[in-house]
Design a protein that fits this description.
Layout: E1 8-12, H1 17-28, E2 32-37, E3 50-53, H2 59-65, E4 71-74, H3 82-85, H4 89-109, E5 114-120, H5 150-169, E6 172-178, E7 181-182, H6 195-205, E8 211-215, E9 221-223, E10 225-226, H7 227-239, E11 245-248, E12 253-255, H8 256-267, E13 273-277, H9 291-297, H10 305-320
Parallel strand pairs: 1-2, 1-4, 2-3, 4-5, 5-6, 6-11, 7-10, 8-13
Antiparallel strand pairs: 9-12
Helix pairs in contact: 1-7, 2-4, 4-5, 6-8, 6-10, 8-10
The chain binds nicotinamide-adenine-dinucleotide (NAD).
Amino acid sequence: MAEQRQERVLVTGAGGFIGHHLVTHLKNLGYWVRGVDQKLPEYTEIDADEFEVRDLRRWDECLAATRGIDHVYALAADMGGMGFISANHATILRNNALINLHTLEAARINGASRYLYSSSACIYPEHLQTEAAVVPLKEEDAYPANPQDAYGWEKLFTEKLCEYYTGEYGIATRTVRFHNIFGPYGTYDGGREKAPAAMCRKVAAVEDGGEIEIWGDGEQTRSFCYIDDCVEGIYRLMQSDYDQPLNLGTEEMVTINELARMVIRASGKHDISLSHIDGPQGVRGRNSDNSRLRDVLGWEPQVTLEDGLSETYRWIEKQVRGG
Ligand SMILES: NC(=O)c1ccc[n+]([C@@H]2O[C@H](COP(=O)([O-])OP(=O)(O)OC[C@H]3O[C@@H](n4cnc5c(N)ncnc54)[C@H](O)[C@@H]3O)[C@@H](O)[C@H]2O)c1
């Protein structure tokens, strides 16, 4: 048993992928944790001491969610993979702006001392991500701003909101920019899933000798970060005294075709071909520059893409088979 910590912690988005894993991590570290989300965790039991179903777009719900809380990990967002993000700009901007404006203000009014905001690599300018062989993105590349989607604009807006709240009200804020987090217990179907989960589902569902569909030519590049490293990084950043935005990802960049081949290897199937179809691809290339992460936290993600994918594949295969 971990020693009981003093601070009472709120995780918003605790019914979602990263939020659920973070609650488990914080419980293992000995924190009292309240989870809040508009839905219960889909694939797991509740680990939080309290779990409240609330719509955090609403001011009264945010006030209730943050009562008696010392540290807030703000992960709630209306989000999904490229298919969802590229087709719902107004909804995403409105919902996420309301969630973030109200959650941060309610946390301040209720006296929270620390607030971690989950931003995204989607804030980086589109014009720096036009080549597959992209230069890895440094934190200062965010400006002059030109994110591809409303999702990224809203994240950038809330990053600034956190900065201004620290300046004007003194609440300590931490801002983490995730780069493609993946792992078990994340959305893998229904339209909000991201590339690694979608790939695992497609490979699990197809017979050896069949084919899976890939959006675009599959030569677009990304780096992916395993969930265990993600929650470790979040926690380390919250404990640090660093109040500027920080990348949290890996520097192991692959094409989407390479990602698909890794999943196929993890599946043990031998003969699956890739069929390239039209579909939203997001930016052409994206990779994280972890120089500042290493400087600030003295740490960076450890799990290789291959190891993370094999864990993720095993879990999604089990879901696809219905068990
Ligand atoms: N997963 C990634 O690769 C990634 C990358 C960059 C940024 N992020 C950010 O990290 C955070 C967590 O992402 P995730 O991957 O766990 O996504 P997720 O969709 O699994 O979790 C987000 C949760 O927020 C909840 N939510 C949405 N609207 C709400 C509302 N009005 N009130 C209460 N809860 C609401 C959802 O129900 C969901 O459970 C998000 O802020 C996301 O934008 C994630």
